[in-house]
Specification:
alpha+beta; seven-stranded mixed sheet; five-stranded mixed sheet; globular
């Protein structure tokens, strides 16, 4: 602590980022500051601190700082460092549930609505997100029924007619592909659907009633029932406006609640004055006040292609809100106002978000405790039980997949503090030899992986623990590569699947953990993920090779048509299952070509 006190005396007053380190050199917290000296010294004074801040400071063995020109540069650098190092005392959002949107590109000749989970600045219109029990598939079906928007995604041209499909005959589509409707009339239908998605449900309700009556008169009772079901669900799908909200209000309303140990944040989504739903986040309380926590949350939550609203509303002053607004404007080309409200309808919304955050806090604590048992606590226990040199913060697991030496592939999956870091996963094609050899395959993969420590250490940092899917032989093969590279500070183990035996370099006998042990469960989770990732890649390569092999033999089927078939039917199985009529719907495939494909597949015994 004396060394820390000495460093505190020489801190600069510039803006910048400070990084707190534990005794083993791990980054445990990253913060930004307008004045580094004032901010960092606050942690080491005798002033009253929260339990979380006290716990963090107790674990601080050292720190360093980076001076930057301005507050916005500090904000940007802090954001990058937290994403890279994932310090345990910062807010870390691990939420893989991305809500769906409907997208339509009006630049297309006959545009159609598509489901997507990513918003891009590509000139298309996006509607959503759909949540709170509102199914995007139900909305899509309603649009098709009410407005006859084509449900398929094949490329259409104004001057080229195709044969209409079943959707036309069951009155789900006006068949623009067959010239049954002009581009101008079709765009009117599209505009009606856009108006509905923008909140005007009156015309949609009228259309559905008219179509239901018409289908009933034609004695198309099944279709009439479908219209009736959609009418009944219209109120839910229409997402009625909250009475006091301005119809132009586009906002995310956020609230933070904490109990000293755990924290939750609730986000309410309001678009065009309509409440679309909410989303909860739960995590261990960071060493932050409400304003600081929400400031850090905003920087973690919003990304370049996310749906950034016009307003972000809270009931507390969000730290550095003006700097965040500027950051979002400069980096994401979106003007946003960050507001702290004390009265009016916006305050009612923040109260609602607060109630949701409070409720989630009371129910999320047990989940977080269980999650910690399965992740960080399991990592700490694993270090002790296997006598590892390092705390296994970054674990990498490797697996090989092949059939008789064909399409040999390897996988690398990465877990940080016991949780999957899917952005860091990598796949390998084994290229250096023919045939099947598990040991050589692992050696080639590890050689290429360790080479990246020299060529791209930022993307491929050194792991703390490497896990090999296999036994003592595979582990010894990988050890040779580490010795050749002179790397001695990485722990190596292997996990044999049959008896779940753990092999280490320090003992000739395996370690067997209780089947209920969280450490073993974590290792199994990592190993199974590596296995899944390798198998998926192997199947993809095998499928592409099989598809290429089969289609290459069909006379007149060039690269463009093969790609069109693959785009339409996804894989060889889809092409084998397709009828002649379905094959003819593919661009460039005429009757003669479709018949040739079917004849060839039949001859090969595939159809």
């Amino acid at each position: 602590m004396n060394e820390l006190q000495e460093k505190l005396k020489h801190l600069p007053t510039n803006p910048g980022v400070y990084v707190m380190l534990s005794a083993d050199g791990q980054i445990i917290y990253v913060g930004k500051a307008k004045n580094i000296k004032n901010r960092v010294r606050q942690y080491f004074t005798n002033a009253v601190k929260t339990d979380k801040v006290m716990a963090m400071v107790k674990n601080v063995a050292d720190f360093y700082y980076i001076i930057v020109p301005s507050e916005i540069d500090a904000l940007s650098l802090e954001n990058n460092l937290i994403k890279k190092h994932k310090p345990r005392y910062n807010i870390l959002l691990k939420d893989d549930k991305t809500y769906p949107y409907l997208k339509i590109d009006l630049k297309e000749d006959f545009p159609t609505f598509k489901v997507t989970r990513k918003i891009k600045r590509d000139g298309a219109k996006y509607f959503g997100p759909f949540m709170g029990g509102v199914s995007v598939k139900s909305v899509l079906e309603l649009i098709n029924l009410a407005f006859g928007i084509r449900p398929c995604e094949k490329k259409l041209f104004k001057d080229k007619c195709l044969k209409e499909c079943l959707n036309y005959h069951i009155r789900k589509c006006y068949a623009p592909c067959a010239g049954k409707i002009s581009p101008e009339e079709y765009l009117q239908k599209v505009q009606g659907a856009i108006d509905f998605l923008s909140g005007d449900t009156t015309e949609t309700e009228k259309l559905l009633k008219e179509k239901m009556m018409l289908a009933s008169q034609r004695e198309e009772f099944e279709l009439a029932l479908k219209y009736k079901e959609n009418l009944l669900s219209l109120e839910k799908i229409g997402l009625k406006r909250l009475t006091a909200l301005n119809k132009f209000l586009n906002a995310d309303v956020i609230a933070h609640r904490a109990n000293g140990i755990y924290s939750t944040i609730n986000v309410l989504f309001v678009r065009n004055g309509r409440m679309l739903g909410s989303k909860n986040f739960a995590f261990e309380s960071a060493a932050l006040s409400d304003g600081d926590a929400l400031s850090e949350f905003i920087m973690r939550y919003y990304k370049k292609d996310s749906d950034i609203p016009d307003e972000i509303i809270s009931d507390v002053e969000i730290t550095d809100s003006d700097v965040i607004e500027k950051f979002i404007k400069e980096n994401y080309s979106k003007s946003v106002s960050i507001l702290c409200v004390k009265q009016g309808v916006r305050r009612q919304l923040t109260d609602m978000a607060g109630v949701n955050a409070e409720e989630h806090l009371s129910t999320a604590v047990d989940k977080i405790k269980h999650k910690n048992d399965m992740t960080i606590s399991a990592c700490k226990a694993l270090q002790e039980k296997l006598s590892l040199k390092n705390y296994p913060k970054r674990m990498e697991c490797y697996d090989i997949s092949n059939i008789s030496g064909v399409d040999k592939v390897g996988s690398m999956v990465v877990f940080i503090d016991g949780q999957a870091d899917r952005d860091s996963y990598r796949r390998f094609k084994i290229k250096s030899f023919e045939g099947a050899d598990d040991y050589r395959s692992h050696q080639e993969m590890m050689q290429r992986r360790l080479d990246r420590l020299v060529t791209d250490a930022e993307k491929f940092p050194k792991p703390d623990l490497v896990i090999i899917d296999g036994g003592k032989g595979q582990l010894s093969a990988v050890k040779e590569i580490f010795e050749q590279k002179g790397i001695t500070d990485v722990d190596l183990i292997s996990l044999a699947e049959r008896e779940e035996e753990i092999f280490t370099l320090d003992s000739s006998t395996p370690i067997v953990l209780d089947r209920r042990d969280y450490c073993l469960k974590m290792l199994q989770r990592i190993r199974d993920e590596a296995h899944r990732f390798a198998i998926t890649y192997h199947r993809t390569l095998r499928g592409k090779r099989a598809l290429s092999s089969v289609l290459d033999s069909i006379k007149g089927l060039g690269k463009v048509r093969k790609m069109a078939l693959l785009e339409r039917f996804r894989d060889l199985g889809g092409i084998i299952s397709a009828t002649e009529e379905q094959l003819k719907e593919v661009e460039g495939i005429g009757e003669k070509q479709a018949r040739a494909i079917i004849e060839h597949l039949t001859k090969e015994g595939l159809k």
